Amino acid sequence: ENGGQRRGTLLVYLNDVASGGGTAFRDLGITVQPHKGRALLFFPSDVDGVPDDRTLHAGEPVLQGEKWIAQLWLHEREYTPGVVPGAKLGAASEACRMYAEVGRA
Fold first, then answer.
1. Mean pLDDT value of segment 14-19
2. CA–CA distance, 8 with 42 (Å, rounded to integer)
3. Cystine design at 5: which of 15, 49, 51, 82 (Cβ 3.0–4.6 Å)?
4. Quick one: which of 26, 94, 18 has its CA closest to 57?
5. pLDDT the model gives residue 104
6. Residue 90 has pLDDT above 90, yes or no
7. What is the rounded average pLDDT of the residues 1-21?
8. What gap in Å lies between CA 3 and CA 52, rounded to an integer?
9. Taking the CA of residue 90 as centre, how many other CA atoms within 13 Å lie in the half-sphere pointing to its CB?
């Protein structure tokens, strides 16, 4: 399996969201609201690589505005990234370029 178990996840919120867009942890009963510069670090498995189901999470719908994040996954072994079949990498690249331009304004 490519990379094996995820050992750590880092989410960095790149903008403020007017309404909605939180990261919800169902089993922990908490939701982290996105604010520019806020970072969320959690560990989806224990030191032996056993998944911790309490860290199952989901992005809530953005009700007003947009939500931009940077995400880093730390795997137990080397991970080779790939593009999901059918994904529009060019569209994502263009969206990132536009975001960077807005940030410079």
1. 95
2. 6
3. 49
4. 26
5. 59
6. no
7. 92
8. 17
9. 1
d(C-alpha 57, C-alpha 24), whole Å? 5
5, 6, 69, 86, 92 from 43: Cα distances, Å: 11, 8, 18, 30, 27
- Amino acid (one-letter) located at 54: R
More confident residue, 83 or 30: 30
Please give the structure tokens belonging to residue 54.
């309490």
Backbone CA torsion sign across 60, 5, 92, 41:
positive
- Alpha-carbon gap, residue 11 to 20, rounded angstroms: 16
Using a 10 angstrom Cβ sphere, with 0-12 exposed, 13-18 middle and 19 or more buried, the burial of residue 49 is: exposed
**Is there a contact between 71 and 44 (Cβ–Cβ < 8 Å)?**
no
